[in-house]
Structure formats: C-alpha cells, structure tokens
Design brief:
This protein has 170 residues and is mainly β. It has a single domain, classed as Rieske [2Fe-2S] iron-sulphur domain (Rieske Iron-sulfur Protein, 3-layer Sandwich). It contains two helices and 13 strands, in the order H-E-E-E-E-E-E-E-E-E-E-E-E-H-E. The structure holds FE2/S2 (inorganic) cluster. The site of FE2/S2 (inorganic) cluster has 11 residues, from loops.
Length: 170
C-alpha cells in the first residue's frame, strides 16, 4: 500500500509495526515479481528477523549474498552491497514517518511521499532530503552482525560515524 494512500501519515498516530510490515511486504512482492532475484548485482531480497535481541542491540545473521533484507517490525534494512554490510533505517530522512520502498526496475530505494531515490547503500540520488538514508551503528560478531538501534547516524550531522557504520565482508 503506497504511503500516499495512507491518510494519517504525518498527522495522526500510526500502528508503526503494522504499517512497516504492510509497506515492506508490498515492496518485497514487487521485487520478486520483477525478477530481481536473478540479478547478480543485487541477488538477495527478503525479510529478516533478529536471532537475538538485547535492549537496543539486535543480532542478525550476516547476509550471505548481495541484497537487502528487511526487518519491517523494527524498521531496519540489512543491506549487503559490494561486500559491505549496512544497517539502514527504513524511514525516509526527509520525514521520519514515511517508509521507503524498493523499486526493482531501477534497483533503488524510493520515497513515495515526495519521490526521492536512494542507492542500495543508502546514498541519496535525488529528491527533497538533504542527506542519505540514516545508518545504524553495526559491528561484526563471527557470522553475525550486531545493530545498535539507539545509535542511528545521520550523514549531515555525524558524517564520520555515518561513513564508518559498515562492516566489510570477504
Ligand atoms: S518524506 Fe521522503 S522525500 Fe519527503
């Protein structure tokens, strides 16, 4: 369900978990339908849930392939791009109530509210936001990554931390 059809966006309470789940599943359906799974540059798209949760720290399995895995309940996207793993916020950096969606044809994240576009690693392509998608602090622990959802970095106000919020994998 595109956000522009959601009458409460930005002005009244939202059941965040239900909203994120609905939007992410819609995006995932589009991804599968367009054959993105066959694209070696972004081969894996699907949903993910943490294997452990301790307060604000979520542990996820290290993505085995390039692609995006969406934890809609917690608003986290785990993206592996060119052997680097990022934990991205699913909300648009322009207005934090807007949930981003994946556009399989162009291999971009898209904000349906004001038509902004982002690369799979969160970098801004175009649109109203003045920064990239926000990134959570992330570190590797064996074959897992640990995401601290209390440490969310914005590209414009914490550029160094935002740039370091990544894990290189072999
Ligand atoms: S809310 Fe996403 S570009 Fe405005």
């Amino acid at each position: 369900m595109p956000l522009r059809n959601t009458p409460c966006a930005g002005s009244c309470p939202i059941d965040r978990a239900r909203f994120l789940r609905s939007t992410a599943l819609t995006a995932l359906a589009g991804i599968a339908g367009a054959g993105i799974l066959a694209d070696p540059a972004f081969a894996q798209v699907g949903s993910i849930a943490p294997t452990q949760s301790h307060g604000n720290v979520l542990t996820y399995a290290l993505p085995a392939k390039e692609g995006a895995l969406i934890d809609a309940d917690r608003g986290v996207i785990v993206a592996r791009v060119k052997n680097t793993v990022y934990a991205l916020s699913i909300t648009c950096p322009h207005r934090a109530v807007t949930t981003l969606e994946w556009i399989p044809e162009t291999k971009e994240f898209h904000c349906p509210k004001h038509d902004a576009h982002f690369q799979p690693d969160g970098e801004l392509i175009d649109g109203r936001p003045d920064r990239a998608m926000d990134r959570y602090a992330v570190r590797r622990a064996g074959q897992s990554i640990m995401v601290d959802t209390a440490a969310v970095w914005q590209q414009d106000t914490a550029h160094d931390a935002w740039s370091r919020a990544a894990v290189t994998v072999g």
